[in-house]
Design goal:
233 residues, alpha/beta, 10 helices, D-Maltodextrin-Binding Protein, domain 2, five-stranded mixed sheet, 42% helix
Length: 233
């Protein structure tokens, strides 16, 4: 039996973990999964790190395809994740219904935290676009990954985080003291799509291809939907 290494974006962690576990049970193959922000994942793949299956954003997958690092015929759509405002579990729920109320909520926070991944890059641009960067100043906190956003908010009750809702659900499942205040208002919402593919250099290509196909199957879509990853291209 094969051992399959998966490198995956963190936003799809709950779904990937469940499907990988089911794949192990059904096939007898062993699956190891490492979750990391997409910018870091891109660097690692570009540097030649071995993996059998990759789950990342379409832009990253396009890059891997051009480099010949994934099998094009194994590539498929996983789903998309929306962003939300994360607050401490004991904090009062702010009313976030539109962009002005969103801005007001951030300005009222003791800190506004986002990560360095795709969602964090968007958050930084949004803060700047809305003219909040100057007023927030040193209250803007940047952490490495999605989990770190939730951990920071849990440790700082007055803080607000901007993060993928699917990642929030993972940390809430673990008992992290955070909750969703609201999704980002429609007019400023950011949805990040994810895809899966088998790696061209995999030494277990048949098993890797089978897992990649499983991750993008109709059954998988139902699993992802239940973990906060919506469907529709």
């Amino acid at each position: 039996m094969a051992t399959i290494k998966v490198l995956s974006a963190g936003a799809v962690k709950r779904g990937v973990s469940q499907i990988a576990s089911e794949f192990e049970r059904d096939t007898g193959n062993r699956v190891t999964v490492e979750f990391t922000p997409v910018p870091e994942l891109r660097k690692r793949i570009a540097a030649g790190e071995a993996a059998d299956v990759v789950v990342a954003t379409p832009a990253a997958m396009d890059e891997f395809a051009k480099q010949g690092k994934i099998l094009a015929d194994s590539r498929g759509y996983v789903g998309r994740s929306s962003m939300g405002v994360v607050i401490h579990a004991d904090a009062a729920m702010p009313e976030i219904r539109d962009t002005p109320s969103f801005s007001k909520a951030l300005l009222g926070a003791t800190a506004v935290v986002h990560n360095e991944a795709s969602s964090g890059i968007y958050a930084a641009k949004l803060i700047d676009k809305l003219g909040l960067a100057k007023d927030l100043g040193s209250r803007i906190v940047v952490v490495k990954g999605g989990a770190a956003v939730m951990e920071y908010v849990a440790a700082h009750p007055g803080a607000a985080g901007l993060a993928q809702i699917s990642e929030l659900m993972v940390l809430m499942d673990r008992g992290c003291a955070v909750k969703l205040a609201a999704p980002l208002p429609d007019e400023i919402q950011n949805e990040t799509s994810y895809e899966a593919a088998a790696a061209a250099a995999s030494k277990t290509q048949d098993a890797a291809r089978a897992l990649a196909i499983r991750l993008t199957s109709g059954t998988a879509k139902a699993v992802f939907a239940a973990t906060g990853i919506s469907q529709g291209a």
